Amino acid sequence: MNNELKAVEVMAISKAIKTAQVSSARKNLTVGTHEVNCLVRVKGSIKVGEDGTTNSWTKAKYDLLAGIALSHVNEATLKAIIREYVEIVKDNDSAEDKAIASAKEIKSEADKALKEVLGSTEVFRSGTVTTKLEIEAVEELAEV
């Protein structure tokens, strides 16, 4: 008897266990080693989309980018930026919301500049896998 799972079965099992179920199960586990011996049934369908390509741009590491930018300002400007940051963080939510909106605009401009400087790269993408699956415990009648 061949006990190896087919690719579609492996994919079904991995997709059948929802994140919420895993999170809930973890909350109910106690510390220690637990023995596992269960039999489950996974039923349903899997749809695999077409493979393709897409354009990809290098994503900026904004903490590094900010560090580089801050290294180009004088000490007085650096301290002023840090004071402004501290005030925004400890101030009310509306000031922080405005600062976040401003930062998002700057990030968008940085993304645009990055795309212009580096260009894009065509990247292979596997087709999307969507499922309609159910997973249920099966009462084991005999040892396998």
Structure description:
This protein is an alpha+beta fold. It has 2 domains: 7-51 and 128-137, no CATH class; 61-122, no CATH class. It is 49% helix and 19% strand. It is built from 5 helices and 4 strands, in the order H-H-E-E-H-H-H-E-E. It has helices at residues 7-16, 19-27, 62-70, 75-90, 93-118; strands at 40-48, 52-56, 121-125, 129-137. The longest helix is centred in the last third of the chain and has 26 residues, at 93-118. The mean pLDDT is 83.
Q: In what range is the share of β-strand residues?
A: 15-25%
Q: What count of helical segments does DSSP give?
A: 5
Per the principal axes of the C-alpha atoms, what is the gross shape? elongated
* Poorly predicted tracts of residues: none
- Profile the largest sheet: 2 strands, antiparallel
Order of helices and strands: HHEEHHHEE
Terminal CA distance? 11 Å
Question: Which value, in Å, is the CA radius of gyration?
Answer: 26 Å
Classification by helices and strands: alpha+beta
- Number of structurally distinct domains: 2
The strand order across the widest sheet is: 1-4
Strands, total number = 4
Q: Work out the helicity level.
A: 40-55%
- Give average pLDDT, whole number: 83
